[in-house]
Amino acid sequence: MIALMSVALAADSFAISLSSGMFIKHIKFYKALKIALFFGVFHIVMPLIGWITGLGIRELVEAYSHWVVALILIGLGIKMIYEALVPDREITFNPLDNQTLFGLAIVTSIDVLAAGLGLSIISLPLPMIVTSFGLVTFVLSFMGVFLGHYFGNFLEDKAEVTGGFLLIGAAVYILLEGIGVIVPVAP
């Protein structure tokens, strides 16, 4: 389940990386590395913040945790699908500018903050979560820069829609597990 969520939550960063790759004139290893590091690090830090926040409210929502987590993930999934289907606007930016990358990393990791909050409520292992979220995001973002540079616009919206459906699938699984329809699988 954590691997599935990692891929789904990395979809925004992957889509931004694809877009960034289209704007980079002379693609170099270190340019893709810089973008991937920004996104990967934020996908480690933000679930930590969400996790810590979730620990404070865990006892309040323990009995309803599967509903809370499912609603958060369904909301995130719908948001990702909606944003992918909204018509594109012409955007010009420098994807290698530190301020731009910082802003993009925050925006693409808000979903991960919410996921960290939800995952703390159902007591999944923090080291596994942040390692998976960060590593998957780093790898997909790194590849996304090169794919975007070479293949252009073709993949961008498809990644976010797929990620949205993966989050909704994870939410349904958590909900069914929480109400006892399916037997829990060890994370």
UniProtKB/TrEMBL annotation:
TM region(s), chain numbering: 6-24, 36-57, 63-82, 102-122, 128-152, 164-186
Pfam families in alphabetical order: Mntp
Membrane topology designation: Multi-pass membrane protein
InterPro entries according to UniProt: Mntp/YtaF (IPR003810), Put_MntP (IPR022929)
Protein name per the record: Putative manganese efflux pump MntP
Keyword presence, Ion transport: yes
Species this chain originates from: Euhalothece natronophila Z-M001
Name of the coding gene: mntP
Gene Ontology MF terms in the entry: manganese ion transmembrane transporter activity
Coiled coil: none
GO cellular component terms listed in the entry, alphabetical order: plasma membrane
Compartmental location: Cell membrane
